[in-house]
Design a protein that fits this description.
This protein has 251 residues and is an alpha/beta fold. The protein has 10 helices and 10 strands. It has one domain: Rossmann fold (3-Layer(aba) Sandwich). 39% of the residues lie in helices and 24% in strands. Strand 7, helix 7 and strand 8 form a beta-alpha-beta unit. It is globular.
């Protein structure tokens, strides 16, 4: 059975590693233009869930739909072609390649053309215009020919969001964007995420900084031991007794 909604839907998904249940019958739905916070204690299964959605892991049971299409068995690279972008706790770049070539991997996914076509400039003008606009938001400057490893860690994390946006994704999965960023870099990362949602992109955001989550996310899902224990608006989640007990704590 399919769903016809323009949304990313995770339906009764479970995943175990040996005797450890990392996702236990998890269901959630993310609409286009929505920022969904995904919070919970360390080991709650948050990153595992992103790995299942993006296709890095296969589900043991349950289904994943993207805009009405069942992608449960679709390989990760095809999900990316369909409009599912991903960032990681530690940026994933080709470290011996130039900044230019790393960014072109994002625009290649966005336009579904070969890497060699993008390298030889079939769409250089549009790519550069869009990149200039995104880099202005990100407040990042660089030499095209520098290796990506020459950039500071915080700038790499922000640039990974830029690369994800160059894919023109329908949905972006973002894993702990605040980790390792200073306040200026975090502000710039949030501007990029907000820009993505304004363009109609749905976002799932894992984050431990509750000030960011509560002020920035439209809705929040809380995981604990692989289970969804709460879901709702930030103000509702803050008052939820199960969430306070498992994660937020009391004053």
């Amino acid at each position: 059975m399919q769903t016809t909604d323009l949304c990313l839907e995770i339906r009764n998904v479970s995943k175990a590693f040996g005797g450890v249940i990392a996702a236990d019958n998890v269901s959630l739905k993310i609409k286009r233009g929505e920022i969904r916070g995904l919070i919970g204690p360390n080991g709650a299964g948050k990153t595992t869930l992103l790995n299942l959605i993006s296709g890095i892991y296969t589900v043991d049971s349950g289904s994943i739909f993207m805009d009405g299409h069942d992608v449960t068995s679709t390989p990760a690279y095809q999900r990316a072609r369909m409009g599912l972008a991903r960032t990681f706790q530690s940026p994933r770049f080709i470290h011996r390649a130039s900044i230019r070539n790393n960014l072109l991997l994002g625009t290649d996914l966005g336009d579904q053309i070969s890497y060699m076509q993008s390298y030889f400039g079939k769409k250089t003008h549009n790519f550069r215009d869009e990149l200039v606009e995104l880099l202005d938001l990100a407040q990042i400057s660089f030499d095209w020919d520098d290796e990506i490893a020459s950039m500071p860690f915080g700038q790499q994390k922000v640039l990974e969001i830029v690369r994800a946006m160059l894919e023109h994704p329908k949905y972006i999965l973002i894993d702990e964007p605040a980790a390792g960023l200073n306040d200026v870099e975090l502000t710039n990362a949030m501007k990029l995420i907000e820009r993505a949602t304004n363009l109609g992109c749905g976002v799932i955001l894992i984050e431990h900084r509750m000030d960011m989550v509560m002020s920035f996310c439209h809705t929040i899902t809380v995981l604990n031991f692989g289970k969804v224990i709460a879901e709702g608006l930030p103000a509702e989640v803050q008052k939820n007794e199960a969430v306070i007990e498992a994660y937020l704590g009391r004053e």
